[in-house]
């Protein structure tokens, strides 16, 4: 949970600060908890692009919601502004993951209307997640269908094993090539043609 600077908050008020600063207000509610959750703020990840070497993007069927699974185990969610924008109150983000025999709920998040992304700092490797983003409008406008995306985070241990195996395999290949070149050099330069054709001649001489 990241709070905004307290001095601007006391000087100009919460609303004016939120209008001037690109903060995204949100609340995290643990499953089964009675408390409404603490109000937190985070800066948006503007200009973020998922690079192929460090990130894997998973999209909802409509493409409006994207889950960017990063190699450090975190997941950055991004979504497009909903239509219509009038009367939008915010978003509800629901999370669940597959267990061995059933699906378990994660913490739910309430986000402000200005939010366009949210970071899941620690996603469990090897677990299949399902995240659904539901826009919320002021009555009497009904809420549109939720956008959902499913993905699986690659385990960190598996990533390390793959990298290590790739490095070891490359080293072995280099060593084999070096040995083959060394054997070819010895065969061509240290042994005479007569020795190669009939080694017994050299012993008789």
From TrEMBL:
Organism superkingdom: Eukaryota
Limits of the Fibronectin type-III domain: 61-156
Keyword terms of this UniProt record: Membrane, Transmembrane, Transmembrane helix
Membrane-spanning ranges: 161-186
InterPro entries reported in the protein's UniProt record: FN3_dom, Fndc10
UniProt keyword annotation of Membrane present: yes
Keyword Nucleotidyltransferase (UniProt): no
Matches recorded under Pfam families: Fndc10 (PF17742)
Name recorded for this polypeptide: Fibronectin type III domain containing 10
Organism for this UniProt entry: Anas platyrhynchos platyrhynchos
Gene: FNDC10
């Amino acid at each position: 949970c990241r709070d905004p600077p307290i001095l601007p908050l006391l000087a100009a008020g919460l609303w004016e600060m939120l209008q001037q600063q690109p903060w995204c207000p949100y609340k995290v509610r643990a499953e089964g908890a009675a408390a409404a959750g603490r109000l937190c703020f985070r800066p948006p990840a503007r200009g973020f692009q998922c690079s192929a070497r460090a990130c894997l993007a998973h999209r909802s069927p409509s493409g409006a919601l994207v889950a960017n699974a990063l190699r450090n185990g975190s997941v950055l969610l991004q979504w497009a502004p909903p239509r219509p924008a009038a009367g939008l109150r915010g978003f509800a983000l629901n999370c669940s993951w597959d267990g061995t025999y059933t699906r378990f709920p994660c913490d739910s998040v309430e986000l402000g209307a200005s939010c366009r992304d949210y970071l899941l700092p620690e996603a469990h490797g090897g677990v299949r997640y399902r995240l659904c983003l539901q826009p919320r409008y002021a009555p009497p406008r009904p809420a549109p269908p939720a956008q959902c995306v499913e993905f699986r985070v690659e385990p960190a241990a598996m990533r390390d094993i793959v990298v290590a195996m790739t490095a070891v395999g490359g080293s072995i290949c280099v060593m084999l090539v070096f040995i083959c070149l060394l054997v070819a050099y010895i065969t061509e330069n240290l042994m005479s043609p007569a020795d190669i054709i009939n080694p017994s001649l050299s012993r008789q001489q």
